[in-house]
Amino acid sequence: MFTVFRQKAPTAWVERADQQRRRGELHKAFDTCRRAVTECPGYVSGYIELARVCLDLHDTIGAREALNAATTLDPMNPVASSLLAKLDLAGGQREQAAQRLTDLLFLYPCDTEAAALFDETSLHTVSGPVPETVEPASSPTQTAAQSADAALERLRATPGVTWCMLIDEQGLPVFGSVGRGEETDSRTAASACAALQAWSTVWNEPAKAKRAIIECSGGKAVLADCNEWVLAVGLSARVRLGRVLGPIDQTVLSIRTLGRMLSQ
Amino acid sequence: MKRILSELNKTNGVLGSAVLAPDGLVIAREASTSVSSEGLWQQGLKAFSALADMAQAAGCGEATAVNIEWGQARMLAHVVPGGILFAAMRPDVPLGQAQTAVQRAAAAIREAGR
Q1: Of the residues A156, A165, A242, B54, which has the fewest C-beta atoms closer than 10 A?
Q2: ipTM score of the complex?
Q3: Is B67 at the interface with chain A, CB within 8 A?
């Protein structure tokens, strides 16, 4: 069943490559990434995943090339910038790494990974202090909560977004929740989360839904899968979906990165 | 109803469609062999109800349409008189185009019901 779905969306390529990389099938992951960036040359995450695979294969030149391609498409991509800074550090180019991280922390002050890397450069005592907006982290969970809050606040500031919250499988809010979504009881939210997950019996392969858009009489709601959690967003009735799906995808990416950081 | 669903299925990328009553009874179904399983539509109805309940609890009002996306597929659901119209389609069908096709079919069902 569903052989017609063989044509892969760029996200599917990257997810497959990520799974292969985590299983240690690095050469397979490399081939998948190459195919992803060949077929979807404008998809930034494809280059970032390719860079990760190259790093696991100890191919720093390949990784740098892939990251340069990613930053050409998206100059201040936090993941690509952070990985480039790591490469700079590994290559002894501490000043370049510090510069990248300073720029990155200016835009994403709660990026804990970047803050930790910045500490590693050991340059902040010479070239200036860490930006004041970066609060000292007392625990990884606390800093993760700060980053999640910041990502949710940014999304909430998007025109047309009325509320947003991050919920776990039980439908309970995680880290911080903003706005009217808090009024949703956890049982209803848990059923909605389950609705995204329960498709593997009907699709021929494991198939957790990535996103659901619900159009209602008084507005719209979007549920987006963030691996461990689900991002729920309320939208005003008149908002054009095309204008908000980009910021929602960006938030999903930030939350997924956060989840990966916490699980490591 | 079958004629309307057949018309909807002619839209590029649409693999199958069905109308289900809120209690799960299949009112009509037209699909290619790849989406012939009734379980797909039943699962769609279950998801529609859960998502609609959550949106209503969050103050968005009554759900009129739902779009569920996977990496490799997309399902659209639209409330019609007496039930919910579902359409399964490939993910490369642009969302706007998919919505228009389903809305047109929903309007035809409403018209036929008069």
Answers
A1: A242
A2: 0.91
A3: yes
